[in-house]
Structure formats: C-alpha cells, structure tokens
Design a protein that fits this description.
7-stranded mixed sheet, 6-stranded mixed sheet, 31% helix
C-alpha cells in the first residue's frame, strides 16, 4: 500500500511537470500563433471549408475592430438606411417615366436670368399608381445647345414619391429642361444589393515570369480556392491582393496583369429587365417645351433679387458677376457648382481667370495619382506645353508611369496609376505598382508641390467596403502629409459620369454617385480642395468616362486658378 502511494505521488508529479512544460511552450509561441490567425482573418474573408463563396465577415473575431473598420461599418450602415430593399413582384409596379408627372411651380411666359425654376415631380408606376416612397436615381439638366451651355439641376427627395427639382437659370435664351429616370428605386435597390454580394464580376490574370518560363494564374481581391496563394499585402492599411501560386514559381515573379469581365450576375432575371437599354435614362419631361429666359428689366431684377430700393440701373447684375471673388484653393462648392457657357466652365461661387499655363506651373512639382481620367490631365499638359519633354522611365504599356519636365522653367509633372483593383483588358506591368498611400507617404511636400488624386471608376464592380477602405487610407496618408508639410496643395478630383447604357451591374453611374458622396463626406475635414468633375461632366452632358479635351481643359483651368 505504501509503495502504491509513492507511485501515485510520482505519477502526479510527472503529470504536473508535463502540463507546466506544455503551458510554457504555448505561451512562448502565442504571439506568433495569434498574429498569423489575425492576419488571415483580417484579409481573407472566406473559409475554404464552408459552402459560402463570399462571407462578408470573419467567422470569429480575435480583437476589437480597428478605427478604420468601425468607420467602414458606420458608412455602410448609413448607406443601407438610405437605400432600403425594394422588392417587386412585377416590372409594372416599378417607377415609370411615362406615367410620372412633372409640374412647373408658378409658371411664367418668360423668366429672368438668375431666377430659380422649381418643378414638382410625382412618380407613378407603370399602372399609373402613385408611388409611396422615393429612392429613384434621377438626373436633372438644363441646356441650350446653340449656346453650348448647360448646368445640372438639384433634386430633393421627400421619400414619399414626390421630388422637388430646382434649376438656376444662369443664362439668357431658349433653355431645354431634362429630367432622366436613370434607374427606378427598385433598380437602385437591386444594384446596391448585388454590388455587395461578390468580388468575382471581374477576373484578373497574373503573369509570372522566371527566366524563360512564363505562367498565367488567376488573381483577385478575394479568391475562393483551396490552392496555395501568393499574398500581396499591405498589413498597415489592411489591403490585399491574391494570386493562385503557380507551381515551381515564386510569388515575387509576378510581373504583369490583365482583367476581363466574368459572366456572373447577382441580379435576378426580373431585376435584369430594369437595366435593358429601353429602361435606362428615360426622359420624364419629354413633352416639355423650351422656356424663355431674358435679361431682367429693373423691376423684375429687383423682385427676383429681393431688393426693395428702386432707382438702380440694370448694370446691377453685371456688377454682381464682376464682384465675384477669383477662385482659389479651399473654397467650398455649391449644388450646382456652376454652369457651362460657350463651352467654358463658370463656377457659382467664384470666377475663373485665364491663366498662362507655363508661367503658372513654373517651379511646380505636380503629382497626378489615380486612374485614366487623371491620366487625361497628363496628356493634356503634354499637348498644351510644347516645352515639356517626356522622360523615358523604361516601362511599357498604356498604364506605364509618365514623367514630363521643362528644365528651363523647373516644371515637373508626373502621373502614376493606383494599385489593385486596376481593370484593363490590355496587359499592364505591376512591377512598379504601389498603393497611393505609400506614394503619398514618401512625398516630402512643400508650397510648390501639388498632388491631384482621382479614385473611383475601377472600384465600381466591387463591394463598397473596398472603396471606402481605400478612401479612408488615402485620407489618413494626406492627413499625415499635411501635418509634416502644411503648405502642400492636395486636390481631389471626383469621378466623371460615364456611358449610360454600359453594363449597369458593374459600371452604372449609380455606383459612381455613391462613391462621389463617400468622397465628399470622408475628405470634408481636411484642408483639401475638390474639383467636382461629377457636376462638371453632367453640365457638359458628356456621358463618357473619358470626356473630350475641352472638358478636360476646363477641369485643369480650375486647378491652375487654385495654384496661381
């Protein structure tokens, strides 16, 4: 019995020592284990063992949400509230442009320049029944083609099936009014739901090169596969891109990329019918006649301007225009932000001067960062300044970085593309690609440094959290830049409107409009200026992701007025 007791105590002692060793070993390696799990869960929002292709959230949470993740969640929740689900049983119950009624409030035979014209819109479905909710994607525009004039209108949604459409009558002459039903509210809801369901509407193909061997492999923001992945991660900003790792090829051998649309849709057959060409961008005010706008006489000028004194001559309006302050960096924008007259952009709140481009840019370092719509600026500069010389950076392809210099005037202008997602059917090099946040981080900045950033078009086919995260990361990088170099001028160029009938599920202007609102919200607290390309391209009526040169030139003229 005594021997048995001794053996029992010895066994307990051995078990205690073994347990202590296991706990010590796990504790020593816990940092690495948790770090690896955390990275995987932060950047891979899927699980290979589950049937779900694209879960929106990790299955488990190992740490509290970061400040960025909380902000993303907050923005998406607000958008979800503004774009509620609108299920429908038949197309006849969706908004109809033909059956909706638009009524000019307080109509007159002739209007005065500077007047506000208001229209009450009551939307109805295809059976003529009043809609009880709003959310339709509408576009209001006024124009005078003979005068090469145009401006956007302001749409106020009362969320009960009625809208107030307001136009400022900026010029004299015969003016046409347009109110397009781009998508009914049911289509808006369908697009919003579909957008946030999948990452696979665009397929990326990466080219890996190792010596004489060349292999192509599937890549993307999210990949649903059990294969080994190459991970191209920015751990600080929690952004990532992935490729299926080719056999016998290192991940660092990725050199080029191209993409194509995948035949996949998250819209039902019934929802797809809302985006057929005949149902997109339908005119509500088709039967409206043009309105006549004239120069006010003294009495009407006083009435429309709210003045009570008489005895002033009609030069009052011209003096008011002449008194507008010159446009400068930091000015806030209005809705509408301006109008086009004789193909020239005229802001509401300030006046644009004619600037000599060469002298304005003397001694300036201009960074143009973003997509091909800001590359148009680079091409415009090179075409307009004959002393700019392009520098060969020994890259290839349409999306190669560009640098142009004028050594006599010390002008340096460069354009670089942003990092994934970058959609393009043509093969482009990824060897020199970097996230814009990193490019901003390595910019010293000073009073002669100007940075212009354009985000948007390439993000439209992907869930909105991808765009919000990128915008927040760029915001943080600019915030740090302005702390170390407050004299640096940073300008955000918003998206252009684009082709109306081109693949709504991927590229609808509704997606662009949501991103436009997000950009204005995120950057409002920084000392940056926004060039409202969205409103400008509506006023010009371009409907082209790459607007004509004269539109690009007018966008650049705003920049020149900010600089000089």
């Amino acid at each position: 019995m005594k021997i048995s007791m001794i053996n029992y105590k010895s066994l307990l002692a051995l078990l205690f020592i073994l347990a202590s060793w296991i706990i010590f070993t796990v504790f020593q390696n816990s940092t690495k284990v948790w770090s690896a799990l955390n990275l995987s869960i932060s950047l891979h929002y899927w699980n290979n063992s589950t049937k779900s292709l694209f879960p929106k959230t990790p299955l488990i949470s190992l740490k509290p949400l970061t400040e960025t993740e909380l902000r993303i969640k907050e923005i998406i929740e607000k958008l979800d509230q503004q774009i509620p689900p609108r299920p429908f049983t038949h197309v006849n119950t969706t908004t109809s442009a033909t059956h909706s009624t638009a009524t000019i409030l307080n109509p007159r035979d002739t209007y005065c320049r500077g007047d506000q014209l208001h229209i009450l819109l009551e939307v109805r479905d295809h059976l003529g029944r009043r809609k009880q909710y709003g959310g339709d994607f509408l576009r209001a525009r006024m124009s005078s083609p003979a005068l090469m004039a145009g401006a956007s209108g302001k749409v106020t949604d009362f969320n009960n099936g009625t809208y107030l459409v307001s136009f400022t009558l900026f010029w004299e002459g015969q003016v046409s009014l347009s109110l397009l039903l781009i998508h009914p509210s049911e289509g808006v809801s369908a697009l919003w739901s579909a957008r946030n369901q999948g990452y696979d509407r665009v397929i990326f193909t990466g080219q890996f090169v190792n010596g004489t061997s060349q292999v192509h492999s599937e890549c993307g923001l999210i990949l649903n596969t059990n294969a080994e992945l190459c991970q191209y991660l920015d751990n600080r900003d929690q952004e990532g891109f992935y490729c299926v790792r080719p056999q016998h090829m290192p991940c660092a051998a990725l050199t080029h990329m191209y993409s194509k649309n995948k035949k996949v849709s998250y819209l039902s057959k019934q929802e797809k019918s809302l985006f057929e060409r005949s149902n997109v961008g339908v005119e509500i005010m088709e039967k409206f006649n043009t309105i006549s706008v004239s120069k006010c006489n003294i009495l009407s000028a006083l009435c429309s301007s709210g003045l009570s004194k008489v005895g002033q001559d009609t030069s009052y309006l011209e003096e008011t225009v002449a008194m507008k302050e010159k446009c400068k960096f930091g000015m806030t924008s209005t809705i509408p932000s301006g109008h086009v007259w004789r193909n020239t952009w005229n802001p509401v709140s300030c006046s644009l001067a004619t600037v000599k481009m060469k002298e304005c840019l003397r001694g300036k370092l201009i960074y143009l960062m973003g997509d091909s719509t800001i590359r148009q600026w680079m091409e415009y500069f090179k075409a307009s300044i004959n002393t700019l010389k392009s520098v060969d950076l020994h890259e290839s392809g349409k999306l190669q970085h560009q640098l142009a210099v004028d050594l006599d005037r010390n002008i340096n202008i460069q354009w670089q593309k942003y990092c994934y997602p970058l959609i393009g059917s043509m093969t482009y090099s990824v060897k020199e690609m970097e996230y814009l946040t990193r490019a901003i981080d390595r910019t010293g900045g000073e009073k002669n440094t100007v940075i212009v950033i354009s985000l948007g078009q390439h993000f439209r086919p992907f869930p909105i959290d991808v765009f919000i995260r990128r915008a927040l990361n760029v915001h943080k990088a600019i915030q740090h830049l302005l702390l170390r170099s407050p004299d640096t001028m940073v300008i955000i160029k918003t998206e252009n409107i684009r082709e109306m009938y081109n693949d709504a599920e991927r590229f609808s202007d509704f997606h662009g409009y949501i991103q436009y609102l997000i950009i204005k919200d995120i950057f409002q607290d920084l000392s940056v200026s926004i060039i409202d390309a969205w409103d400008i391209t509506i006023a010009y009526g371009t409907n082209n992701v790459h607007p004509p040169q004269h539109v690009v030139g007018n966008q650049i003229n705003i920049l020149l007025n900010y600089i000089c």
